[in-house]
Design a protein that fits this description.
The protein has 5 helices and 11 strands; from the N terminus they run H-E-E-E-H-H-E-E-E-E-H-H-E-E-E-E. The protein is α+β, with helices and mostly antiparallel strands. It has one domain. The termini are far apart. The relative contact order is 0.23.
Length: 187
Amino acid sequence: MRAFALTLLALWSLPASAVTETWVDPETGLATWQTETRGIQVRLTQISPDQARAFYQARGFAAEAAERYASECVFMTVVRNVGAAVIEHDLADWRYATPGRPPRAIRSKVEWDRLWQQANVPEPARIAFNWAQFPATQTFAPDDWNQGMTTYSVPRGGRFDLRFVWRSDGETLSGTLEEVRCADETS
């Protein structure tokens, strides 16, 4: 386990080889960050707190539980295999960093489910939640893609860098989305 943690730390310190593209949807005002490197494309699009609240309340979450989720920095996450080789990812390897803090892991679906059980969120709502989150692990053949929500414990309007990790052809690779910004309450 220690060797794996050191590998992740080493990957974090490698220079990013791709540029982060950013754009804002003129209708919604929500921003997207995207990068493409070595056969993978990763995109984060802001989900506003109101969107997160409404989405989960419509799926059976009580207002307090939906607010707990909406208080996080929520993104629609899309991963595409844009290369010729099979790629695999494990969200447990991904890290995000904010100024002055060490890199942190993304909260897993298992951790969220534990919180939802403690909050007495009904099982059908927890199932809907699980299906809406980005898969914890996945193998992508060329041209495959998937999407789902990911969350980051960053204040509204706060910024972070996301280091994503994947495996391809027996090699562990990483890339970075830089200066990602959480949606404001008014986004």
